[in-house]
Design a protein that fits this description.
Layout lengths: L2 H5 L32 E3 L6 H10 L12 H14 L3 E6 L4 E6 L23 E7 L7 H9 L4 E7 L5 E9 L9 E3 L12 H17 L8 E7 L5 H17 L3 E8 L12 H13 L4 E4 L5 H11 L2 E4 H12 L3 H21 L5 H4 L10 H4 L3 H31 L4 E6 L5 H9 L16 E6 L5 E6 L9 H7 L9 E9 L5 H14 L7 E6 L6 H11 L2 E2 L8 H13 L9 H10 L2
Parallel strand pairs: 1-3, 4-5, 8-9, 8-10, 10-11, 12-14, 12-15, 15-16, 16-17
Antiparallel strand pairs: 2-3, 2-4, 5-6, 6-7, 13-14
Bound molecules: guanosine-5'-triphosphate (GTP) and magnesium ion.
Protein backbone atom coordinates (compact mmCIF):
# COMPACT_ATOMS: atom_id res chain seq x y z
CA UNK A 1 0.00 0.00 0.00
CA UNK A 2 1.25 3.45 -0.68
CA UNK A 3 1.76 5.96 2.05
CA UNK A 4 -1.03 7.99 0.49
CA UNK A 5 -3.34 5.05 0.97
CA UNK A 6 -2.35 4.66 4.59
CA UNK A 7 -3.13 8.29 5.17
CA UNK A 8 -6.56 7.65 3.76
CA UNK A 9 -6.68 11.08 2.22
CA UNK A 10 -9.69 12.38 0.41
CA UNK A 11 -9.17 12.31 -3.34
CA UNK A 12 -6.97 15.23 -4.34
CA UNK A 13 -8.42 17.87 -6.62
CA UNK A 14 -7.94 16.90 -10.24
CA UNK A 15 -5.57 19.78 -10.87
CA UNK A 16 -3.06 18.41 -8.40
CA UNK A 17 -2.73 15.17 -10.22
CA UNK A 18 0.56 15.93 -11.83
CA UNK A 19 2.26 16.51 -8.54
CA UNK A 20 1.52 13.80 -6.08
CA UNK A 21 2.23 14.36 -2.42
CA UNK A 22 5.94 14.13 -1.75
CA UNK A 23 5.29 11.19 0.55
CA UNK A 24 4.12 9.19 -2.46
CA UNK A 25 7.48 9.78 -4.13
CA UNK A 26 9.44 6.73 -5.11
CA UNK A 27 12.08 5.74 -7.57
CA UNK A 28 11.08 6.76 -11.07
CA UNK A 29 11.90 3.65 -12.98
CA UNK A 30 11.70 0.00 -12.09
CA UNK A 31 13.76 -1.35 -14.88
CA UNK A 32 14.27 -4.88 -13.61
CA UNK A 33 11.34 -7.13 -14.11
CA UNK A 34 12.45 -9.30 -11.24
CA UNK A 35 12.14 -6.48 -8.74
CA UNK A 36 9.29 -6.67 -6.17
CA UNK A 37 5.75 -6.01 -7.43
CA UNK A 38 5.05 -2.49 -8.54
CA UNK A 39 3.49 -0.24 -5.93
CA UNK A 40 0.08 1.11 -6.67
CA UNK A 41 -0.15 4.91 -6.60
CA UNK A 42 -3.30 6.38 -5.18
CA UNK A 43 -5.79 5.72 -2.50
CA UNK A 44 -6.64 2.05 -2.20
CA UNK A 45 -8.64 2.30 1.01
CA UNK A 46 -12.00 0.62 0.79
CA UNK A 47 -10.92 -1.75 -1.96
CA UNK A 48 -11.35 -5.48 -1.59
CA UNK A 49 -8.20 -7.58 -1.40
CA UNK A 50 -9.05 -9.07 -4.79
CA UNK A 51 -9.30 -5.62 -6.32
CA UNK A 52 -5.93 -4.62 -4.91
CA UNK A 53 -4.54 -7.87 -6.31
CA UNK A 54 -5.98 -7.06 -9.70
CA UNK A 55 -4.29 -3.66 -9.58
CA UNK A 56 -0.99 -5.25 -8.67
CA UNK A 57 -1.43 -7.72 -11.50
CA UNK A 58 -1.59 -4.80 -13.91
CA UNK A 59 1.98 -4.00 -12.93
CA UNK A 60 3.13 -7.22 -14.58
CA UNK A 61 1.55 -6.54 -17.96
CA UNK A 62 3.69 -6.18 -20.99
CA UNK A 63 2.64 -5.27 -24.54
CA UNK A 64 4.58 -5.72 -27.70
CA UNK A 65 6.45 -2.46 -28.38
CA UNK A 66 4.54 -1.74 -31.59
CA UNK A 67 1.14 -1.48 -29.87
CA UNK A 68 -0.04 1.76 -28.27
CA UNK A 69 -2.59 -0.26 -26.31
CA UNK A 70 -4.16 -3.67 -26.72
CA UNK A 71 -7.72 -4.75 -26.28
CA UNK A 72 -6.67 -7.10 -23.46
CA UNK A 73 -5.04 -4.34 -21.44
CA UNK A 74 -7.92 -1.98 -22.16
CA UNK A 75 -10.39 -4.55 -20.96
CA UNK A 76 -8.49 -5.31 -17.80
CA UNK A 77 -8.46 -1.59 -17.02
CA UNK A 78 -12.11 -0.93 -17.78
CA UNK A 79 -13.43 -3.98 -15.95
CA UNK A 80 -11.50 -3.13 -12.84
CA UNK A 81 -12.42 0.52 -13.14
CA UNK A 82 -16.09 -0.38 -13.48
CA UNK A 83 -15.80 -2.64 -10.48
CA UNK A 84 -14.27 -0.04 -8.16
CA UNK A 85 -15.97 2.99 -9.77
CA UNK A 86 -12.70 4.87 -9.90
CA UNK A 87 -10.32 5.71 -12.67
CA UNK A 88 -7.55 3.18 -13.17
CA UNK A 89 -4.41 3.81 -15.19
CA UNK A 90 -0.96 2.57 -16.11
CA UNK A 91 2.20 4.21 -17.39
CA UNK A 92 3.95 2.16 -20.05
CA UNK A 93 7.51 2.59 -21.18
CA UNK A 94 8.59 2.23 -24.81
CA UNK A 95 9.33 -1.45 -24.49
CA UNK A 96 5.67 -1.92 -23.58
CA UNK A 97 6.25 -2.68 -19.86
CA UNK A 98 4.04 -1.22 -17.18
CA UNK A 99 6.12 1.11 -15.00
CA UNK A 100 3.44 2.52 -12.74
CA UNK A 101 -0.10 1.59 -11.75
CA UNK A 102 -2.45 4.30 -10.53
CA UNK A 103 -5.85 4.33 -8.95
CA UNK A 104 -7.77 7.59 -8.92
CA UNK A 105 -11.25 8.69 -8.04
CA UNK A 106 -14.41 9.07 -10.09
CA UNK A 107 -13.22 11.87 -12.29
CA UNK A 108 -9.48 12.09 -11.94
CA UNK A 109 -6.28 10.26 -11.29
CA UNK A 110 -3.02 11.30 -9.75
CA UNK A 111 0.26 10.45 -11.42
CA UNK A 112 3.35 9.61 -9.41
CA UNK A 113 5.76 12.43 -8.69
CA UNK A 114 8.80 12.16 -10.90
CA UNK A 115 10.89 14.43 -8.85
CA UNK A 116 12.32 17.22 -10.92
CA UNK A 117 13.81 15.20 -13.71
CA UNK A 118 13.66 16.96 -17.03
CA UNK A 119 13.32 15.26 -20.32
CA UNK A 120 16.00 16.45 -22.74
CA UNK A 121 15.38 19.30 -25.16
CA UNK A 122 12.72 18.37 -27.66
CA UNK A 123 12.55 14.94 -26.06
CA UNK A 124 9.67 13.04 -24.62
CA UNK A 125 9.73 11.17 -21.37
CA UNK A 126 9.37 7.72 -22.89
CA UNK A 127 6.23 6.94 -20.91
CA UNK A 128 2.61 6.93 -21.99
CA UNK A 129 -0.48 7.10 -19.85
CA UNK A 130 -3.32 4.69 -20.48
CA UNK A 131 -6.29 5.24 -18.19
CA UNK A 132 -10.04 4.92 -17.92
CA UNK A 133 -12.79 7.53 -17.96
CA UNK A 134 -16.01 6.55 -16.23
CA UNK A 135 -18.36 9.23 -17.55
CA UNK A 136 -17.74 8.75 -21.24
CA UNK A 137 -15.72 11.94 -21.42
CA UNK A 138 -12.97 12.25 -24.02
CA UNK A 139 -9.57 13.67 -23.19
CA UNK A 140 -9.80 16.32 -20.49
CA UNK A 141 -7.82 19.44 -19.83
CA UNK A 142 -5.93 17.51 -17.13
CA UNK A 143 -4.94 14.89 -19.67
CA UNK A 144 -3.51 17.57 -21.93
CA UNK A 145 -1.73 19.27 -19.04
CA UNK A 146 -0.06 16.05 -18.00
CA UNK A 147 0.89 15.37 -21.57
CA UNK A 148 2.75 18.67 -21.68
CA UNK A 149 4.01 18.96 -18.13
CA UNK A 150 5.36 15.45 -17.99
CA UNK A 151 6.36 15.27 -21.66
CA UNK A 152 4.45 12.02 -22.00
CA UNK A 153 4.72 10.08 -25.24
CA UNK A 154 0.93 9.96 -25.40
CA UNK A 155 -2.18 10.01 -23.29
CA UNK A 156 -4.92 7.48 -23.93
CA UNK A 157 -8.26 7.54 -22.18
CA UNK A 158 -10.62 4.64 -22.57
CA UNK A 159 -14.33 4.98 -21.94
CA UNK A 160 -15.77 2.44 -19.53
CA UNK A 161 -19.07 1.01 -20.76
CA UNK A 162 -21.83 0.05 -18.37
CA UNK A 163 -21.00 -3.62 -18.86
CA UNK A 164 -17.38 -2.91 -17.93
CA UNK A 165 -16.05 -3.44 -21.43
CA UNK A 166 -13.96 -0.82 -23.19
CA UNK A 167 -15.80 1.80 -25.20
CA UNK A 168 -14.08 4.34 -27.41
CA UNK A 169 -10.45 5.14 -26.86
CA UNK A 170 -9.16 8.72 -27.14
CA UNK A 171 -5.46 9.25 -27.77
CA UNK A 172 -3.33 12.35 -28.09
CA UNK A 173 0.31 13.36 -28.27
CA UNK A 174 2.09 16.69 -28.25
CA UNK A 175 2.15 18.44 -31.60
CA UNK A 176 5.38 19.77 -33.04
CA UNK A 177 5.21 23.57 -33.45
CA UNK A 178 2.79 24.34 -36.25
CA UNK A 179 1.25 27.31 -37.96
CA UNK A 180 -2.25 26.90 -36.55
CA UNK A 181 -0.88 27.00 -33.02
CA UNK A 182 -2.23 23.55 -32.24
CA UNK A 183 -0.58 22.19 -29.14
CA UNK A 184 -2.00 18.70 -29.09
CA UNK A 185 -2.46 16.17 -31.86
CA UNK A 186 -5.56 14.05 -31.30
CA UNK A 187 -6.24 10.76 -33.00
CA UNK A 188 -9.80 9.96 -34.01
CA UNK A 189 -11.53 8.06 -31.21
CA UNK A 190 -11.71 4.37 -32.03
CA UNK A 191 -12.13 1.11 -30.20
CA UNK A 192 -8.84 0.13 -28.52
CA UNK A 193 -8.73 -3.10 -30.47
CA UNK A 194 -8.59 -1.17 -33.72
CA UNK A 195 -5.34 0.81 -33.49
CA UNK A 196 -3.46 -0.40 -36.53
CA UNK A 197 -0.26 1.65 -36.58
CA UNK A 198 3.17 0.70 -35.32
CA UNK A 199 3.59 2.68 -32.10
CA UNK A 200 7.38 2.35 -31.97
CA UNK A 201 7.75 3.85 -35.46
CA UNK A 202 5.12 6.51 -34.74
CA UNK A 203 6.78 7.70 -31.56
CA UNK A 204 10.22 7.75 -33.16
CA UNK A 205 8.90 9.88 -36.02
CA UNK A 206 7.17 12.23 -33.63
CA UNK A 207 10.26 12.71 -31.53
CA UNK A 208 12.35 13.35 -34.64
CA UNK A 209 9.87 15.93 -35.77
CA UNK A 210 9.86 17.61 -32.37
CA UNK A 211 13.61 17.92 -32.26
CA UNK A 212 13.73 19.08 -35.89
CA UNK A 213 11.31 21.87 -35.09
CA UNK A 214 13.66 22.88 -32.32
CA UNK A 215 16.77 22.87 -34.47
CA UNK A 216 15.26 25.14 -37.09
CA UNK A 217 14.74 27.91 -34.56
CA UNK A 218 17.10 30.81 -34.29
CA UNK A 219 18.76 30.41 -30.97
CA UNK A 220 21.44 32.83 -32.08
CA UNK A 221 22.09 34.81 -28.94
CA UNK A 222 20.25 35.13 -25.74
CA UNK A 223 17.62 33.02 -24.20
CA UNK A 224 14.28 32.18 -25.76
CA UNK A 225 11.41 33.63 -23.83
CA UNK A 226 7.64 33.79 -23.77
CA UNK A 227 6.00 36.90 -22.34
CA UNK A 228 2.82 36.54 -20.32
CA UNK A 229 0.35 39.19 -19.25
CA UNK A 230 -3.11 39.26 -17.69
CA UNK A 231 -5.47 42.19 -18.27
CA UNK A 232 -6.38 42.28 -14.56
CA UNK A 233 -8.69 45.24 -14.90
CA UNK A 234 -6.79 47.00 -17.69
CA UNK A 235 -8.33 47.53 -21.09
CA UNK A 236 -6.93 45.80 -24.15
CA UNK A 237 -5.14 48.88 -25.40
CA UNK A 238 -3.29 49.39 -22.13
CA UNK A 239 -2.45 45.72 -22.01
CA UNK A 240 -0.93 45.90 -25.46
CA UNK A 241 1.11 48.94 -24.56
CA UNK A 242 2.41 47.19 -21.48
CA UNK A 243 3.25 44.11 -23.48
CA UNK A 244 5.13 46.21 -26.04
CA UNK A 245 7.09 47.75 -23.24
CA UNK A 246 7.84 44.35 -21.73
CA UNK A 247 9.04 43.27 -25.14
CA UNK A 248 11.40 46.26 -25.24
CA UNK A 249 12.64 45.43 -21.77
CA UNK A 250 13.27 41.85 -22.82
CA UNK A 251 15.18 43.11 -25.83
CA UNK A 252 17.23 45.38 -23.60
CA UNK A 253 18.09 42.32 -21.50
CA UNK A 254 19.21 40.44 -24.59
CA UNK A 255 16.33 37.99 -24.54
CA UNK A 256 14.79 36.63 -27.72
CA UNK A 257 11.02 36.94 -27.42
CA UNK A 258 9.43 34.00 -29.20
CA UNK A 259 5.81 34.41 -28.22
CA UNK A 260 3.38 36.47 -26.19
CA UNK A 261 0.50 34.98 -24.22
CA UNK A 262 -2.21 37.24 -22.85
CA UNK A 263 -5.31 36.46 -20.86
CA UNK A 264 -8.38 38.56 -20.15
CA UNK A 265 -9.43 38.06 -16.57
CA UNK A 266 -10.58 40.52 -13.96
CA UNK A 267 -7.91 39.60 -11.45
CA UNK A 268 -4.69 37.67 -11.42
CA UNK A 269 -5.03 34.13 -10.18
CA UNK A 270 -3.74 34.12 -6.60
CA UNK A 271 -1.90 30.87 -7.10
CA UNK A 272 -0.59 31.00 -10.63
CA UNK A 273 -1.28 34.52 -12.02
CA UNK A 274 -2.91 33.07 -15.13
CA UNK A 275 -5.76 30.57 -14.93
CA UNK A 276 -5.19 26.83 -14.82
CA UNK A 277 -6.33 26.25 -18.41
CA UNK A 278 -4.13 28.99 -19.78
CA UNK A 279 -1.25 27.66 -17.78
CA UNK A 280 -1.40 24.27 -19.42
CA UNK A 281 -1.57 25.95 -22.85
CA UNK A 282 1.49 27.88 -21.86
CA UNK A 283 3.36 24.78 -20.76
CA UNK A 284 2.66 23.14 -24.08
CA UNK A 285 3.73 26.22 -25.99
CA UNK A 286 6.97 26.39 -24.05
CA UNK A 287 7.66 22.82 -24.95
CA UNK A 288 6.90 23.32 -28.62
CA UNK A 289 9.07 26.40 -28.93
CA UNK A 290 11.91 25.16 -26.76
CA UNK A 291 11.63 28.03 -24.31
CA UNK A 292 14.22 28.77 -21.63
CA UNK A 293 12.41 31.48 -19.77
CA UNK A 294 8.92 32.79 -19.07
CA UNK A 295 8.51 36.47 -18.20
CA UNK A 296 5.37 37.71 -16.46
CA UNK A 297 4.28 41.31 -16.87
CA UNK A 298 2.66 41.13 -13.44
CA UNK A 299 4.85 40.97 -10.41
CA UNK A 300 4.56 37.58 -8.77
CA UNK A 301 4.18 36.92 -5.08
CA UNK A 302 6.75 34.49 -3.71
CA UNK A 303 4.07 31.78 -3.63
CA UNK A 304 3.07 32.42 -7.24
CA UNK A 305 6.70 32.32 -8.30
CA UNK A 306 7.16 29.00 -6.58
CA UNK A 307 3.98 27.47 -7.96
CA UNK A 308 4.76 28.57 -11.47
CA UNK A 309 8.32 27.41 -11.66
CA UNK A 310 7.38 24.10 -10.12
CA UNK A 311 4.52 23.54 -12.52
CA UNK A 312 6.45 24.63 -15.54
CA UNK A 313 9.89 23.24 -14.74
CA UNK A 314 11.22 26.41 -16.32
CA UNK A 315 12.73 29.62 -15.08
CA UNK A 316 9.87 32.03 -14.48
CA UNK A 317 10.58 35.68 -13.70
CA UNK A 318 8.52 38.85 -13.46
CA UNK A 319 8.95 42.35 -14.81
CA UNK A 320 10.77 43.54 -11.72
CA UNK A 321 13.31 40.77 -11.97
CA UNK A 322 13.76 41.53 -15.64
CA UNK A 323 14.44 45.20 -14.89
CA UNK A 324 16.79 44.25 -12.08
CA UNK A 325 18.58 41.99 -14.49
CA UNK A 326 19.02 44.77 -17.04
CA UNK A 327 20.43 46.94 -14.29
CA UNK A 328 22.78 44.19 -13.24
CA UNK A 329 24.00 43.88 -16.81
CA UNK A 330 24.51 47.63 -17.13
CA UNK A 331 26.04 48.50 -13.79
CA UNK A 332 29.65 49.50 -14.28
CA UNK A 333 30.64 51.55 -11.26
CA UNK A 334 31.14 50.00 -7.86
CA UNK A 335 28.33 52.14 -6.58
CA UNK A 336 25.89 51.02 -9.26
CA UNK A 337 26.79 47.37 -8.81
CA UNK A 338 26.31 47.62 -5.10
CA UNK A 339 22.89 49.14 -5.44
CA UNK A 340 21.71 46.60 -7.98
CA UNK A 341 22.91 43.74 -5.84
CA UNK A 342 21.14 45.21 -2.86
CA UNK A 343 17.89 45.55 -4.80
CA UNK A 344 18.18 42.01 -6.12
CA UNK A 345 18.83 40.55 -2.71
CA UNK A 346 15.95 42.44 -1.16
CA UNK A 347 13.64 41.24 -3.89
CA UNK A 348 14.77 37.66 -3.62
CA UNK A 349 14.91 37.42 0.13
CA UNK A 350 11.28 36.37 0.68
CA UNK A 351 11.50 33.99 -2.26
CA UNK A 352 14.70 32.54 -0.97
CA UNK A 353 13.21 31.97 2.44
CA UNK A 354 10.54 29.68 1.11
CA UNK A 355 12.48 27.52 -1.22
CA UNK A 356 15.96 27.29 0.08
CA UNK A 357 15.94 23.58 -0.61
CA UNK A 358 15.35 23.46 -4.30
CA UNK A 359 15.59 25.15 -7.61
CA UNK A 360 18.02 27.85 -6.68
CA UNK A 361 20.95 26.20 -8.29
CA UNK A 362 18.79 24.94 -11.10
CA UNK A 363 17.23 28.30 -11.65
CA UNK A 364 20.35 30.30 -11.14
CA UNK A 365 22.22 31.91 -13.98
CA UNK A 366 20.93 33.53 -17.11
CA UNK A 367 18.35 36.27 -17.30
CA UNK A 368 16.80 37.02 -13.96
CA UNK A 369 19.47 35.08 -12.21
CA UNK A 370 22.34 37.29 -13.10
CA UNK A 371 24.10 39.64 -10.82
CA UNK A 372 27.02 40.08 -8.61
CA UNK A 373 25.24 38.39 -5.75
CA UNK A 374 24.46 35.12 -7.46
CA UNK A 375 26.97 32.95 -5.68
CA UNK A 376 25.86 34.41 -2.36
CA UNK A 377 22.29 33.49 -3.17
CA UNK A 378 23.16 29.84 -3.01
CA UNK A 379 24.07 30.21 0.58
CA UNK A 380 21.51 30.18 3.32
CA UNK A 381 19.16 32.97 4.34
CA UNK A 382 21.35 34.11 7.13
CA UNK A 383 24.31 34.74 4.94
CA UNK A 384 22.13 36.64 2.50
CA UNK A 385 20.85 38.76 5.33
CA UNK A 386 24.39 39.42 6.49
CA UNK A 387 25.33 40.39 2.99
CA UNK A 388 22.41 42.82 2.82
CA UNK A 389 23.50 44.43 6.05
CA UNK A 390 27.07 44.76 4.81
CA UNK A 391 25.94 46.26 1.53
CA UNK A 392 23.66 48.69 3.29
CA UNK A 393 26.53 49.88 5.43
CA UNK A 394 28.71 50.31 2.36
CA UNK A 395 25.90 52.15 0.55
CA UNK A 396 25.60 54.56 3.47
CA UNK A 397 29.32 55.26 3.33
CA UNK A 398 29.14 55.99 -0.38
CA UNK A 399 26.16 58.28 0.14
CA UNK A 400 28.15 60.29 2.67
CA UNK A 401 31.01 60.57 0.20
CA UNK A 402 28.67 61.79 -2.50
CA UNK A 403 27.10 64.27 -0.14
CA UNK A 404 30.54 65.68 0.57
CA UNK A 405 31.22 66.10 -3.12
CA UNK A 406 27.85 67.74 -3.64
CA UNK A 407 28.39 70.19 -0.82
CA UNK A 408 31.68 71.29 -2.32
CA UNK A 409 30.04 71.84 -5.65
CA UNK A 410 27.16 73.67 -4.02
CA UNK A 411 29.56 76.06 -2.39
CA UNK A 412 30.89 77.00 -5.77
CA UNK A 413 27.36 78.09 -6.57
CA UNK A 414 27.15 76.33 -9.92
CA UNK A 415 23.53 75.69 -10.80
CA UNK A 416 22.57 72.17 -11.81
CA UNK A 417 20.35 71.33 -14.72
CA UNK A 418 19.12 67.75 -14.52
CA UNK A 419 17.78 65.81 -17.46
CA UNK A 420 15.08 63.41 -16.37
CA UNK A 421 12.54 61.39 -18.29
CA UNK A 422 11.18 58.04 -19.31
CA UNK A 423 13.74 55.51 -20.41
CA UNK A 424 14.80 55.76 -24.07
CA UNK A 425 13.32 59.27 -24.47
CA UNK A 426 16.63 60.68 -25.68
CA UNK A 427 18.10 62.14 -22.49
CA UNK A 428 21.67 61.13 -23.21
CA UNK A 429 21.32 62.27 -26.81
CA UNK A 430 20.28 65.68 -25.52
CA UNK A 431 23.24 65.88 -23.13
CA UNK A 432 25.47 64.93 -26.00
CA UNK A 433 24.00 67.56 -28.27
CA UNK A 434 24.26 70.29 -25.66
CA UNK A 435 27.75 69.55 -24.43
CA UNK A 436 29.45 68.04 -27.43
CA UNK A 437 30.37 65.05 -25.38
CA UNK A 438 30.31 61.46 -26.40
CA UNK A 439 28.12 60.04 -23.65
CA UNK A 440 26.63 56.68 -24.36
CA UNK A 441 23.45 56.64 -26.43
CA UNK A 442 21.64 53.50 -27.42
CA UNK A 443 18.25 52.48 -28.67
CA UNK A 444 17.76 50.32 -25.61
CA UNK A 445 15.94 50.90 -22.39
CA UNK A 446 18.17 51.81 -19.48
CA UNK A 447 21.20 52.48 -21.63
CA UNK A 448 22.26 54.98 -18.97
CA UNK A 449 22.57 53.75 -15.44
CA UNK A 450 25.11 55.84 -13.61
CA UNK A 451 24.61 59.58 -13.61
CA UNK A 452 26.82 61.62 -15.92
CA UNK A 453 27.63 65.30 -15.34
CA UNK A 454 29.02 67.75 -17.86
CA UNK A 455 29.65 71.45 -17.87
CA UNK A 456 27.51 73.59 -20.06
CA UNK A 457 28.50 77.18 -20.77
CA UNK A 458 25.89 79.84 -21.20
CA UNK A 459 26.59 83.36 -22.49
CA UNK A 460 28.08 85.90 -20.09
CA UNK A 461 30.46 83.31 -18.72
CA UNK A 462 27.61 81.62 -16.99
CA UNK A 463 28.11 77.98 -16.36
CA UNK A 464 25.89 75.17 -15.27
CA UNK A 465 26.40 71.52 -14.55
CA UNK A 466 24.08 69.40 -16.59
CA UNK A 467 23.41 65.85 -15.47
CA UNK A 468 21.93 62.86 -17.23
CA UNK A 469 20.39 60.18 -15.04
CA UNK A 470 18.88 56.76 -15.18
CA UNK A 471 15.59 56.65 -17.07
CA UNK A 472 12.28 56.07 -15.36
CA UNK A 473 9.60 53.58 -16.17
CA UNK A 474 6.04 53.00 -15.08
CA UNK A 475 5.62 51.02 -11.87
CA UNK A 476 9.29 51.30 -11.08
CA UNK A 477 9.87 48.46 -8.64
CA UNK A 478 10.00 49.69 -5.07
CA UNK A 479 13.32 48.06 -4.40
CA UNK A 480 14.78 49.85 -7.36
CA UNK A 481 13.46 53.23 -6.37
CA UNK A 482 15.06 52.63 -3.01
CA UNK A 483 18.29 51.48 -4.57
CA UNK A 484 18.51 54.42 -6.89
CA UNK A 485 17.61 56.90 -4.27
CA UNK A 486 21.32 57.27 -3.93
CA UNK A 487 22.16 57.94 -7.57
CA UNK A 488 19.09 60.06 -7.95
CA UNK A 489 20.25 62.15 -5.05
CA UNK A 490 22.01 64.15 -7.72
CA UNK A 491 18.58 65.50 -8.48
CA UNK A 492 18.42 67.05 -5.04
CA UNK A 493 20.79 69.75 -6.23
CA UNK A 494 18.94 70.40 -9.44
CA UNK A 495 17.81 73.98 -9.93
CA UNK A 496 15.81 72.93 -12.93
CA UNK A 497 14.59 69.63 -14.31
CA UNK A 498 14.51 69.13 -18.06
CA UNK A 499 11.80 66.53 -18.39
CA UNK A 500 12.47 64.88 -21.74
CA UNK A 501 9.55 63.11 -23.41
CA UNK A 502 9.62 61.05 -26.58
CA UNK A 503 6.95 63.02 -28.43
CA UNK A 504 6.48 60.22 -30.94
CA UNK A 505 5.62 57.59 -28.34
CA UNK A 506 2.05 56.34 -28.31
CA UNK A 507 1.40 57.07 -24.65
CA UNK A 508 2.84 60.44 -23.80
CA UNK A 509 0.47 61.05 -20.88
CA UNK A 510 1.19 57.78 -19.18
CA UNK A 511 4.93 58.30 -19.47
CA UNK A 512 4.83 61.85 -18.17
CA UNK A 513 2.75 60.66 -15.25
CA UNK A 514 5.12 57.78 -14.53
CA UNK A 515 8.09 60.15 -14.43
CA UNK A 516 6.29 62.63 -12.20
CA UNK A 517 5.21 59.80 -9.91
CA UNK A 518 8.78 58.72 -9.37
CA UNK A 519 9.91 62.31 -8.87
CA UNK A 520 7.14 62.68 -6.34
CA UNK A 521 8.19 59.52 -4.51
CA UNK A 522 11.69 60.91 -4.30
CA UNK A 523 10.39 64.21 -3.01
CA UNK A 524 11.46 66.27 -6.01
CA UNK A 525 8.03 67.26 -7.27
CA UNK A 526 8.43 70.86 -6.15
CA UNK A 527 11.33 71.54 -8.51
CA UNK A 528 10.86 73.78 -11.53
CA UNK A 529 10.45 71.64 -14.59
CA UNK A 530 10.59 72.32 -18.30
CA UNK A 531 8.71 69.81 -20.39
CA UNK A 532 10.83 69.00 -23.44
CA UNK A 533 9.23 67.13 -26.33
CA UNK A 534 12.05 65.35 -28.07
CA UNK A 535 12.23 63.39 -31.32
CA UNK A 536 9.90 65.77 -33.17
CA UNK A 537 11.81 64.90 -36.33
CA UNK A 538 9.77 61.73 -36.24
CA UNK A 539 6.52 63.69 -36.37
CA UNK A 540 4.89 65.87 -38.93
CA UNK A 541 5.89 69.49 -38.19
CA UNK A 542 2.40 70.90 -37.70
CA UNK A 543 1.51 67.95 -35.52
CA UNK A 544 4.63 68.46 -33.43
CA UNK A 545 3.89 72.15 -32.91
CA UNK A 546 0.27 71.49 -31.94
CA UNK A 547 1.29 68.77 -29.54
CA UNK A 548 3.90 70.95 -27.87
CA UNK A 549 1.43 73.82 -27.54
CA UNK A 550 -1.12 71.57 -25.95
CA UNK A 551 1.34 70.48 -23.26
CA UNK A 552 3.20 73.79 -23.10
CA UNK A 553 6.31 71.87 -23.96
CA UNK A 554 9.40 72.90 -25.89
CA UNK A 555 9.59 70.90 -29.10
CA UNK A 556 13.10 69.74 -29.97
CA UNK A 557 15.05 67.11 -31.79
CA UNK A 558 18.20 66.21 -29.96
CA UNK A 559 19.24 64.36 -33.06
CA UNK A 560 18.93 67.18 -35.62
CA UNK A 561 19.39 70.10 -33.22
CA UNK A 562 15.99 71.64 -33.89
CA UNK A 563 14.73 73.68 -30.94
CA UNK A 564 17.89 73.49 -28.84
CA UNK A 565 18.29 77.26 -28.94
CA UNK A 566 14.79 77.81 -27.55
CA UNK A 567 15.45 75.20 -24.93
CA UNK A 568 18.57 76.99 -23.73
CA UNK A 569 16.85 80.38 -23.73
CA UNK A 570 14.02 79.10 -21.60
CA UNK A 571 16.40 77.27 -19.28
CA UNK A 572 18.39 80.41 -18.78
CA UNK A 573 15.27 82.36 -17.96
CA UNK A 574 14.31 79.94 -15.26
CA UNK A 575 17.81 79.52 -13.91
CA UNK A 576 18.69 83.17 -13.55
CA UNK A 577 15.32 84.73 -13.79
CA UNK A 578 16.89 87.83 -15.30
CA UNK A 579 15.10 90.69 -16.83
CA UNK A 580 18.34 92.37 -17.77
CA UNK A 581 19.47 90.05 -20.48
CA UNK A 582 21.23 92.04 -23.19
CA UNK A 583 19.24 91.98 -26.42
CA UNK A 584 21.10 90.24 -29.16
CA UNK A 585 22.71 87.82 -26.81
CA UNK A 586 20.35 85.07 -27.92
CA UNK A 587 22.40 84.89 -31.07
CA UNK A 588 25.27 83.49 -29.11
CA UNK A 589 23.02 80.62 -28.13
CA UNK A 590 22.73 79.72 -31.74
CA UNK A 591 26.45 79.16 -31.93
CA UNK A 592 26.51 77.42 -28.65
CA UNK A 593 23.67 75.11 -29.52
CA UNK A 594 25.02 74.45 -32.97
CA UNK A 595 28.53 73.81 -31.78
CA UNK A 596 27.14 71.68 -29.02
CA UNK A 597 26.07 69.05 -31.48
N1 LIG B 1 14.72 60.30 -34.36
C1 LIG B 1 15.23 60.67 -33.21
N2 LIG B 1 15.80 59.76 -32.40
C2 LIG B 1 16.33 60.16 -31.23
C3 LIG B 1 16.27 61.51 -30.81
N3 LIG B 1 16.85 61.59 -29.60
C4 LIG B 1 17.25 60.34 -29.27
N4 LIG B 1 16.95 59.49 -30.26
C5 LIG B 1 17.21 58.04 -30.29
O1 LIG B 1 16.53 57.42 -29.23
C6 LIG B 1 17.31 56.34 -28.70
C7 LIG B 1 17.50 56.52 -27.20
O2 LIG B 1 18.31 57.64 -26.97
P1 LIG B 1 19.09 57.84 -25.62
O3 LIG B 1 19.66 59.21 -25.67
O4 LIG B 1 19.99 56.70 -25.34
O5 LIG B 1 17.88 57.81 -24.62
P2 LIG B 1 17.90 57.92 -23.03
O6 LIG B 1 16.70 58.69 -22.64
O7 LIG B 1 19.21 58.38 -22.57
O8 LIG B 1 17.65 56.41 -22.67
P3 LIG B 1 18.07 55.56 -21.36
O9 LIG B 1 19.41 56.03 -20.91
O10 LIG B 1 18.10 54.18 -21.90
O11 LIG B 1 16.99 55.76 -20.37
C8 LIG B 1 18.61 56.33 -29.47
O12 LIG B 1 18.51 55.38 -30.49
C9 LIG B 1 18.69 57.75 -30.04
O13 LIG B 1 19.42 57.80 -31.23
C10 LIG B 1 15.64 62.46 -31.70
O14 LIG B 1 15.54 63.64 -31.44
N5 LIG B 1 15.15 61.96 -32.86
MG1 LIG C 1 20.60 57.51 -21.48
Amino acid sequence: MTSAARRGDAPPPAIARASAAPSAREPLLHRHRRSPPIQVHGNTTGLKASQVKALERLGRRRLSDDRIVTNELARELTELSNDVRRQVGVLLDRSGSVQHVMIGHGSGIELPDWGRLRAGRGRLRGLRLIHTHLAGEGLTRDDETDLALLRLDAVVSIEVRNDGLPGLSHAASLAPANEDGRSVEKLDPIHPANYDFDFSVWIRDLENELSRATEGQEVAEGERAILVSVTAGRDRETLEMHVDELRELARAAGVHVVDVVTQSRPKVDPRTVIGAGKLSDLVIRCFQSDIDLVIFDQDMTPAQARNLSERMELRVIDRTQLILDIFAQRATTGDGKLQVELAQLRYRMPRLAQRADLSLSRLAGGIGGRGPGETKLESDRRRVRDRITRLEREAKRLTKQREGRRRKRGRRGVPVLSIVGYTNAGKSTLLRALTQSDVHVEDKMFATLDPVSRRLRFPREREVIITDTVGFIRDLPEDLVAAFHATLEELRDASLLLHVVDAASPDIDRRIRAVRDVLGELGFDGKPELLVFNQIDRLDEAEAQALARRYQAIPISALTGTGLRELLTESEEVLWDDEDRVPGEEDRFVDLAASGR
